Amino acid sequence: MKDASRIQTIIEILELVLEDKFPADNILDKYLKERRYIGSKDRRFIADNVWKIIRNRMKYSEALNGIVSARLFTALNFASLDLDLLFNGENYAPIPLDKTEKQLIDKAQAFENYSNHALLECPRWLFEKINNPQLLDALNASAPLDVRANLSSREHAKERLKKEGLFFSFTPLSPIGLRSHDRINLNNCMTYQDGEIEVMDEASQLISLLCQAKPFHKIIDYCAGAGGKSLAIASQLHNEGLIYAHDINKERLSRIKKRAERLDILNIKTIYDVLDNDYTRFIVDAPCSGSGTWRRTPDAKYRLSPQRLNELCQTQAQILDFAAEHTASNGRLIYITCSVFDDENEMQIDAFLSRHPDFQPLNHRHLWQDTLDITLYPFSSEKWLNFSPLNTHTDGFFFCALQKK
C-alpha cells in the first residue's frame, strides 16, 4: 500500500472506533479480515497507529480545542511528516487538508497546557472517581503477553516456544504462567495451535488457582463468557470432575467448544438454566466496567458512563443474590471482577454481607499462601484481593471467596 492509502485506512477504522459503540479490537479485526489484500507489514503499521491514536485520544482532543475527529487525530499523529503528500486526494488517499484544518494541526502541535485528566488519558468523571494518578498512569501502559500452560508444565511449554524462536520468562507469581514483552502472533505458533498454551493474564491465572477447585466439587462458572476460567480450572483438574459453564449470551458461550477442542479439555458442560442449589464452588465472574483491563482496551473507558456503571452494579448485586441461593451449605461463592472501582468490588461485597449474614469472607492471606506457597502477600486486606499493575504488575482484578455457613 502507498503511505497515503495507509493513512486513509487508519482514518476509516478510527471513524468507527470513535463512535464508541463497539470494542476497537473487534472493529480492527473485522476491517482487516474483510480486506485480505492488505499485506502483513501494512496491517502492523495500521494497527500500531490506530492504537497509538486511541492511547492519545484525550491529549489529541484537548490540543484540538475539544474536537474528536478521526481525520484530525490522524493528521496530528503524522504531523511530523509531509501532510500535503499524505492527504493528497488521489485514489485511496484522504482529501487534502483545508486551511482551517492545517491551522488546527499547527496549534495542536504547539499545545502544552494539558489538564491532568488529559495527561493521564482519562475522561474527567473517571479521573475524579478513581482519584489515583499512579494507578491511572499504570493502566495507560501497554500490557505484556501472558499465557498459561495447559495440561502440562510451563517448563515444557517454555522450551517448546524457545524452539520456535519465541522467548518467554516465567510469570513472577503464577506457577503456571509465561510472559513475553514482544509482540507475537500466536496464530503462527504451533505450541499455541497444539493447545499447550492459552492466553491469560497472570492475575486471571492466579484467580483460577485460588478457587481451589477439586474433582469432587460441584463447580459452576457463572457468567462464563467464552470460558477462560472454566478452561483454566479444567486444565488444573486434568480433565477430572465436571465444570458447568453458564452465560446468558448463548453465542459467546458456544465459543467454549472450539477452544476446548484445541486445548483437549473434556470436562466442561455448557448449561443455560441453573436450577440446582448445591454448588460447592459457585464462581461469579461478574459483568463489570472492565476498568482493570484498560492497559489492553484503552478505548473501553470512552464507552463507559455513570449510568452504565450504575446498571452494572445493580446487575452484580442481583447475580450475587442468585448465587447465594444456589451455593451449597459450607460451599464457596467466589466473586470476581476485572474492575478497579470500589462500587463494583468492596462496596458490592459489604452490601452483600449485610443482606446475607450466612456468608463470610475467607482469610485471603491464608488462602493465598496455602494455594500458591508464596510468602509475599502484595495486598492490603485479608478480606479480599485487589490485583493491579501497581502491586502485582497485572491487569486490575478483584477476588473475594465467601464461605456459606
Task: Kindly describe this structure.
With 405 residues, the chain is α/β, with parallel strands linked by helices. It folds into 3 domains: 3-114, no CATH class; 145-199, Sun protein, domain 3 (Alpha-Beta Plaits, 2-Layer Sandwich), CATH 3.30.70.1170; 206-404, Rossmann fold. The chain contains 18 helices and 12 strands. α1 (3-17) crosses α2 (24-33) and α13 crosses α14 (228-236). The longest helix has 21 residues, at 306-326. The chain is globular, with a radius of gyration of 23 Å. The N and C termini lie far apart (65 Å).
Major sheet summary line:
8 strands, mixed
* Total number of distinct structural domains: 3
Mean pLDDT: 96
Which architecture of the largest domain per CATH?
A: 3-Layer(aba) Sandwich
Please estimate the helix content.
40-55%
Percent of sequence in beta strands: 5-15%
Q: Would you identify the CATH H-level superfamily of the largest domain?
A: Vaccinia Virus protein VP39
Briefly summarize what is shown:
The protein is of the alpha/beta class and 405 residues long.
Structural topology:
Layout (H helix, E strand, L loop, with lengths): L2 H15 L6 H10 L6 H16 L1 H7 L6 H8 L5 H4 L12 H12 L5 H4 L4 H7 L2 H8 L4 E5 L4 H10 L5 E2 L6 E4 L9 H4 L3 E3 L2 H9 L8 E4 L5 H9 L6 E4 L3 H14 L4 E4 L7 E7 L20 H21 E11 L8 H10 L3 E3 L2 H9 L12 E3 L9 E8 L1
Parallel strand pairs: 5-6, 5-8, 6-7, 8-9
Antiparallel strand pairs: 1-3, 1-4, 2-3, 9-12, 10-12, 11-12
Helix pairs in contact: 1-2, 1-3, 1-5, 13-14
